[in-house]
């Protein structure tokens, strides 16, 4: 597959070179080459998916009839707080005030590349913006510790993906009789991700904005169809997608390279309620091991031991967050299209100028 892919890409590159040769530079060939370039870039991303194979890891998965959940040492999952198991779900919190609950894996995960598919449900009697607070999916060094971050401890070490259902910052601004600017206003519920190194605090009052890696809005409350969250970590790239529309289609939420997560951390799910409440249910957590083809350079990089979670180029990431909801892939294509658009305009301008200059010379003969 990889060899075929390389040959195809070399053939496409040769076609692009021929289209861009000086003898064939016409507006039509420029447009064709532009389309071919976009197709080639799309194929590069598609090939990455074809190079992966996935295997369900049952020891890290939580599924019906939840026989592996309980206080026994032989169980793979352990409950905490107000969480309880029913025949249909693991209910992290009931629709009651001031509750928090969790379910944590007993086994540390030592996989290089993995994918977590979360089947969840958030529902309750509260109306829009009168519910809370949300749930979180974790891959962290610590486990079974209560706290204010969606039922887990603050200053955690690892990855947290949050489904935040209550706009704390928006309510504070409304109380101060101020208004959001259109560039900063969000629609809740909102899904966001954060990587902590044990010293970074989650800013609850600002809904985690100062430390988030990115996110998207997700209207997940009181839906009659199933809702899913997809978290993939492969080649040190973090991808988060959601399927909440009942169409069985994944929608991009976050795509970020340069995320460094150590091995040997624990998976978990937590939820919390305050003055407002909801039922927060986990129906399944399915973890897949990904087998990925790597280059020699990637194999060497993989051998580097990571002990502290981190994200490369956090300063550039902060600049990229000026536009809410844009993933790393969306930012890449925005920059790519902008550059190609500028090149296209310059080439067309040069061709038009050359045509005009040639016609002007002809008038003197």
Automatic annotation (TrEMBL):
Keywords: Disulfide bond, Glycoprotein, Golgi apparatus, Lectin, Membrane, Metal-binding, Signal, Transmembrane, Transmembrane helix
Location of the L-type lectin-like domain: 54-290
InterPro entries in the record: ConA-like_dom_sf, Intracellular_Lectin-GPT, Lectin_leg
One GO molecular-function entry: metal ion binding
Subcellular location, principal: membrane
Biological process annotations from GO: endoplasmic reticulum to Golgi vesicle-mediated transport
SUPFAM superfamilies in UniProt: Concanavalin A-like lectins/glucanases
Membrane topology: Single-pass type I membrane protein; Single-pass membrane protein
Compartments, record wording: Endomembrane system; Golgi apparatus membrane
GO cellular component: COPII-coated ER to Golgi transport vesicle; endoplasmic reticulum membrane; endoplasmic reticulum-Golgi intermediate compartment; Golgi membrane
Transmembrane residue ranges: 329-353
Keyword Secreted: no
Protein name: Lectin, mannose-binding 2-like a
The organism of origin for this protein: Hippocampus comes
């Amino acid at each position: 597959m990889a060899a075929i892919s390389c040959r195809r890409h070399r053939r496409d590159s040769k076609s692009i070179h021929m289209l861009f040769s000086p003898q064939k530079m016409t507006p039509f060939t420029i447009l064709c080459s532009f389309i071919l370039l976009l197709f080639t870039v799309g194929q590069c991303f598609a090939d990455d998916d074809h190079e992966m194979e996935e295997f369900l890891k049952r020891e890290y998965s939580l599924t019906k009839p939840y026989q592996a959940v309980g206080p026994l040492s032989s169980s793979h999952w352990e409950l905490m707080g107000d969480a309880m198991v029913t025949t249909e779900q693991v209910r992290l919190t009931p629709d009651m005030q001031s509750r928090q609950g969790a379910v944590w894996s007993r086994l540390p995960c030592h996989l290089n590349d993995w994918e977590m598919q979360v089947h969840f449900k958030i529902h309750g009697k509260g109306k829009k913006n009168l519910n809370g607070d949300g749930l979180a999916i974790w891959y962290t060094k610590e486990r079974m510790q209560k706290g204010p971050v969606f039922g887990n401890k603050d200053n955690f070490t690892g990855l947290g993906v949050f489904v935040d259902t209550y706009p704390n910052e928006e309510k504070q601004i409304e109380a101060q009789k101020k208004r959001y600017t259109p560039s900063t206003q969000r629609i809740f519920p909102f899904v966001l991700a954060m990587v902590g190194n044990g010293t970074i605090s989650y800013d609850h009052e600002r809904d985690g904005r100062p430390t988030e890696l990115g996110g998207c809005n997700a209207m997940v409350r009181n839906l009659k169809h199933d809702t899913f969250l997809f978290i993939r970590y492969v080649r040190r790239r973090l991808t988060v997608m959601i399927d909440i529309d009942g169409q069985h289609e994944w929608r991009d939420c976050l795509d970020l390279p340069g995320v460094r997560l150590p091995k040997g951390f624990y998976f978990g799910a937590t939820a919390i309620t305050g003055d407002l409440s909801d039922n927060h249910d986990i129906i399944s957590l399915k973890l897949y091991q990904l087998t990925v083809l790597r280059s020699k350079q990637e194999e060497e990089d993989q051998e580097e031991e990571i002990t502290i979670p981190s994200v490369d180029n956090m300063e550039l990431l902060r600049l990229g967050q000026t536009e809410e909801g844009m993933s790393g892939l969306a930012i890449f294509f925005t920059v790519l299209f902008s550059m190609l658009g500028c090149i296209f305009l310059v080439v067309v301008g040069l061709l038009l100028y050359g045509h005009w200059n040639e016609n002007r010379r002809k008038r003197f003969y």
